[in-house]
Amino acid sequence: MASRLKYYQEIGLEHLQDCDGTIEFTRKLNDLFDVLNGWHPTEGIRQGSSDFRVMKEGLEWLDTGEQQLVGGHITEQKFLAKTPVDGLRVTLKSTVDLRKYLLTEKKFKYVLTRKFNQDPLERFLGMPARLRVEITTQICRQFCMCTERSACTRC
């Protein structure tokens, strides 16, 4: 999307001449979502990978944007609303913390971040409801075992 916006800007579409901020914003979010959607071992976050840097820069970007908003340097239209900022911050911080724990303390080879996303969690936790089964401690234990086995590998 960012490349397409840049292309149309460069060929002279008048209403896209002032969209550099949108292009930068789109690229930043695209990079973050690429990191957060790793589902194949080749896309897994490994010790020393640039993915960790992308997440840290994403957190800094959110902090800077909020500081500029609070300081009156930008308007609300030039930044994300508070709820998406908070959600993205929680996602990035928890992914950074999980990555550190699993790669450093548990010695996993890589982490598949897509396994932490909301959709897999909703599908798994929604199974008992679809089967009309009460969520019990046993289901929670099974969830923990499944995520430990499928989100990472020691191979």
Automatic annotation (TrEMBL):
<dbReference type="InterPro" id="IPR048366">
    <property type="entry name" value="TNP-like_GBD"/>
</dbReference>
<feature type="domain" description="Transposable element P transposase-like GTP-binding insertion">
    <location>
        <begin position="2"/>
        <end position="42"/>
    </location>
</feature>
<protein>
    <recommendedName>
        <fullName>Transposable element P transposase-like GTP-binding insertion domain-containing protein</fullName>
    </recommendedName>
</protein>
<dbReference type="Pfam" id="PF21788">
    <property type="entry name" value="TNP-like_GBD"/>
</dbReference>
